[in-house]
Amino acid sequence: MTLWRMRPARPAVQTRLRPHNRGVTTRPLLIGSEIYRGSTYGPKHPLAIPRVSTTLDLIRAMGWLAPVQYLDSPRATPADLTRFHTPGYIAALMQAEATQRVDPAHRERFRIGADGNPVFREVFSRPATGAGGVMLAARLTAEGGVVHVPGGGTHHGMPDRASGFCYLNDAVLGLLAWLDQGLTRILYLDLDAHHGDGVEAAFADDPRVFTLSIHEANRWPHTGRAEDRAGGHARNLPVPEGTHDSEADFLLRHAILPIIRHLRPQAIMVQAGADSVAEDPLSRLALSNAAYRATLAAVMGQAPRLILLGGGGYNPWSVARCWAGLWATLNGLAIPPRIPPAAEAVLRALTWCRAAGRNPPEHWFTTIADEPRPGPVRPEIRALAARTLDALPEAGLPVAVSTP
Ligand SMILES: [Zn+2]
């Protein structure tokens, strides 16, 4: 397919673009918010657990966050959100937060209060904070840079409805913000155990955004089959149950990196949903968090702009350890084999009502880096990688679009 080349260059850009620059030297930024502390989808929901607040606490307890690197996330306005979402849906979400109930017509139409998308205290303001954070990250990286937004990554959100615990799609809003700056070659890489369906659908007709999702086969939302390519600028790698670190490494070297080298993206957004690790209760993949760090380390130098998001992840220890470890990778920090007492205290303070939470293994408290989980690379993994590389769109557009 040659869609990539066929798209006409935008006539004007709002931001002057630098040529491809691998040497951005500013320190990574972390965008967070205190809205996540104490926020819950309800006691029986997989998102009853703290995630962003624990991640931030752990990063700080490790001494890994200089005050100048942290930014409080703004909340996206309804006007910001209608760049992707419908005004009626935004109004319904705001009404649900204000009244803490949803009328049956809205439940039916917008799936608020249905399908695992409960009405909770911050049902509008929490996702709007995630969206505001990712949109800010896109602005901050206009001239290059690296930003981590662990509260972002709500990749299932649809224009006019909630889906898969996601009310808004902050990834789409951030990618649109990059496009609005004049970027024409963006890679979205989704490492979550579930297919990044909302993002793929949002850009199905826009070859400026190439979406690449690795997810567990035969799992909700049951989209993202290998043959699904959204007109040529999407690739999906549905991996089998038990996919481990050696297989993730194979896909990195034989699918992800060849695609990146071919496309030469101006910007990369990584959705690092932490539900592909072996301890996650909602998937049956078997990665360690080392696989996430290896992928990020390999990808982060490949474009001048990088935004790292969170996403899924339903074991509170593995989410915080995974995301804190990714922040260390962004900063080139070594992870000590045994974490200091202040960091250990953050992890010991967590509770989890699931069976695995009653007697957590000691290393969930005392380490951030998992032991690697290697294994033999199965033939279906090799076949997936090979198939992914055929008929890639041509990466022919100029890197910089000059202003008239
Ligand atoms: Zn997920």
Helix percentage range: 25-40%
How much strand content do the residues show?
5-15%
Number of domains: 1
| CATH H-level superfamily title | Histone deacetylase domain
Poorly predicted parts:
1-24, 396-404
Query: Given this structure, which CATH class is correct?
Result: Alpha Beta
Q: What would you say the CATH architecture is?
A: 3-Layer(aba) Sandwich
Please state how the strands of the largest beta sheet are arranged side by side.
2-1-3-8-7-4-5-6
Radius of gyration: 20 Å
Listed once per kind, the bound small molecules are:
zinc ion
Mean pLDDT: 92
Reading the helices and strands in chain order gives: HEHEHHHHEHEHEEHEHEHHHH
Number of strands: 8
Total of helices: 14
| Largest sheet geometry | 8 strands, parallel
Brief overview:
The protein is an alpha/beta fold. 34% of the residues lie in helices and 10% in strands.
Features:
404 residues; alpha/beta; Arginase, Chain A; eight-stranded parallel β-sheet; 8 strands; 34% helix; globular; disordered C terminus; binds zinc ion
What does this structure look like?
The protein is of the alpha/beta class and 404 residues long. It has a single domain, classed as Arginase, Chain A, CATH 3.40.800. It is built from 14 helices and eight strands. It has helices at residues 3-6, 52-61, 78-81, 87-99, 104-110, 125-140, 170-180, 197-202, 245-263, 289-299, 316-331, 341-348, 363-366, 379-388, and strands spanning 29-32, 70-72, 145-149, 186-190, 209-216, 234-239, 267-271, 305-309. Helix 2 (52-61) links the parallel strand 1 (29-32) and strand 2. Helix 2 (52-61) packs antiparallel against helix 12 and helix 9 packs parallel to helix 10. The longest helix has 19 residues, at 245-263. It is globular and about 55 Å long. Bound molecules: zinc ion (ZN). Residues 192-194, 273, 275, 311-312 line the site of zinc ion (ZN).
